[in-house]
């Protein structure tokens, strides 16, 4: 796998790396990455006024050479009332990004989510300082 995204040292803490195959040009990767992030930011946990991307619930995004996207995500708690629905919301949002061939969402709980994964934007939205 070739990482066209920022080198690991430049990635924001607790942000998913976008891994891609060599067959995708850097320009197309930038377009897909922006679209995927925008789609992820459109999905909210109904009990929390922050999107799943800023909450740090997205652990990994992989785009293969056919533009199929695989996402590893978690929940704020394993017993989340929308645990069965949220992966479908993510799949539907990312599937709508032009150029995405398909989406698979994997629910993972390792490492467990904690508040340190939240962005500054999410902390401001939740008034958590």
Automatic annotation (TrEMBL):
Q: Which PANTHER family match?
A: FE-S PROTEIN MATURATION AUXILIARY FACTOR YITW
Superkingdom classification of source: Bacteria
In Swiss-Prot or TrEMBL terms, this protein is called: SUF system Fe-S cluster assembly protein
Enumerate the Pfam families for this protein: FeS_assembly_P (PF01883)
Gene3D superfamilies to which the protein is assigned, alphabetical: Fe-S cluster assembly (FSCA)
Domain called MIP18 family-like: residue spans: 36-105
NCBIfam families membership: SUF_assoc (TIGR02945)
């Amino acid at each position: 796998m070739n990482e066209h995204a920022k080198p690991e040292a430049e990635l924001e803490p607790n942000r998913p790396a976008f891994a891609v195959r060599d067959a995708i040009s850097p320009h197309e990767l930038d377009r897909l990455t922006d679209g995927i992030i925008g789609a992820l930011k459109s999905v909210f946990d109904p009990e929390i006024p922050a999107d799943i991307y800023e909450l740090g619930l997205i652990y990994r995004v992989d785009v293969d050479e056919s533009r199929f996207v695989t996402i590893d995500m978690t929940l704020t708690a394993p017993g989340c009332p929308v645990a069965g629905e949220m992966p479908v919301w993510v799949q539907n949002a990312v599937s709508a990004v032009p150029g995405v061939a398909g989406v698979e969402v994997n629910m993972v709980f390792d490492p467990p989510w904690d508040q340190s994964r939240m962005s500054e934007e999410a902390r401001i939205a939740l008034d958590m300082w």
